[in-house]
Every structure is written in structure tokens, then in C-alpha cells.
From TrEMBL:
<dbReference type="InterPro" id="IPR012337">
    <property type="entry name" value="RNaseH-like_sf"/>
</dbReference>
<dbReference type="GO" id="GO:0005829">
    <property type="term" value="C:cytosol"/>
</dbReference>
<dbReference type="GO" id="GO:0016788">
    <property type="term" value="F:hydrolase activity, acting on ester bonds"/>
</dbReference>
<dbReference type="GO" id="GO:0004518">
    <property type="term" value="F:nuclease activity"/>
</dbReference>
<keyword id="KW-0540">Nuclease</keyword>
<keyword id="KW-0690">Ribosome biogenesis</keyword>
<dbReference type="InterPro" id="IPR037027">
    <property type="entry name" value="YqgF/RNaseH-like_dom_sf"/>
</dbReference>
<comment type="function">
    <text>Could be a nuclease involved in processing of the 5'-end of pre-16S rRNA.</text>
</comment>
<dbReference type="Pfam" id="PF03652">
    <property type="entry name" value="RuvX"/>
</dbReference>
<dbReference type="InterPro" id="IPR005227">
    <property type="entry name" value="YqgF"/>
</dbReference>
<feature type="domain" description="YqgF/RNase H-like">
    <location>
        <begin position="2"/>
        <end position="100"/>
    </location>
</feature>
<keyword id="KW-0378">Hydrolase</keyword>
<comment type="similarity">
    <text>Belongs to the YqgF HJR family.</text>
</comment>
<dbReference type="GO" id="GO:0000967">
    <property type="term" value="P:rRNA 5'-end processing"/>
</dbReference>
<keyword id="KW-0963">Cytoplasm</keyword>
<dbReference type="InterPro" id="IPR006641">
    <property type="entry name" value="YqgF/RNaseH-like_dom"/>
</dbReference>
<protein>
    <recommendedName>
        <fullName>Putative pre-16S rRNA nuclease</fullName>
        <ecNumber>3.1.-.-</ecNumber>
    </recommendedName>
</protein>
Length: 137
């Protein structure tokens, strides 16, 4: 069974998460410099079969698009152009960074490691992916 790949897009860094082949568990994959993201995805798609992408949709607490939303929309257009056969799903990503920080604390990660934003980005992507998976049930 192919994997589902989640993307927590950022201007500098992008967090990535994937399901296991049976699509039961969402796990952090990596954090990639955003300017290298498409190359990373092309390489990953050669190695692994991906059923669909899940991209975080950035919103303010009042449900309006956040400042980064136009950048994410541009990325989604490029993603669809690069991988036209792979569906792209959108998931509200409000509060995922806060949830990721709490997850790292609960997991016993040292403060120094929690301050590494790349850890938060990939855990945020896993939370986005888990949310998508739960919404499909």
C-alpha cells in the first residue's frame, strides 16, 4: 500500500511526515530547507510510492488565511504541476506548532533539542497527517 506524505510548508524550512505502508501510523520524516523541497520530493517519490500529499493550510485563529497562505498556495500549484497524478489534500494546521512543542515536552526531549525548530516542523507535519488520517475514518 502506498504512503501518504504530509508537508508543513514554511518560508525557510518545511517539515515532512509519512504514514507507514499500511497507513496506520503517521511519523515525522525530515525537515528540509524549503528551497530544496521539490528536489527532495522528486527523490523521495522515486524511492517510495506515495498515494497522496497532505499540505497544511495556514489560518489565523479567526479562520482567515495567515500571512504565509499565498506562499503555500503557490507551492501547492507547483506541487500539482510537478506530480499531476498525485492528489493533494489540505488540512487546517492551526495550533500544530503548539501541539508539536507539547508533544516534544511530553516525550521527554531536552530543552536544547526542543529549541531546534526543525524538530517542531516535522512533528507538526506528523500532527497534520494524523489529523487527515483521522478525518478519513
Amino acid at each position: 500500500m502506498p504512503r501518504i506524505l504530509a508537508i508543513d510548508y514554511g518560508l525557510k524550512r518545511t517539515g515532512l511526515a509519512v504514514t507507514d505502508p499500511l497507513q496506520i501510523i503517521a511519523s515525522p520524516l525530515d525537515t528540509v530547507a524549503t528551497h530544496q523541497l521539490m528536489d527532495f520530493l522528486k527523490s523521495y517519490m522515486v524511492q517510495e510510492e506515495v498515494e497522496s500529499f497532505v499540505v497544511g493550510q495556514p489560518k489565523q485563529t479567526d479562520n482567515t488565511p495567515s500571512e504565509i497562505a499565498p506562499h503555500v498556495e503557490g507551492f501547492v500549484k507547483r506541487l500539482k504541476a510537478q506530480f499531476p497524478e498525485t492528489p493533494v489534500h489540505r488540512v487546517d494546521e492551526r495550533f500544530t506548532s503548539i501541539m508539536a512543542q507539547q508533544t516534544l515536552i511530553a516525550g521527554g526531549m531536552k530543552k536544547k533539542d526542543r529549541q531546534d525548530k526543525s524538530n517542531i516542523d516535522k512533528v507538526s507535519a506528523a500532527i497534520i497527517l494524523q489529523s487527515f488520517m483521522e478525518s478519513r475514518k
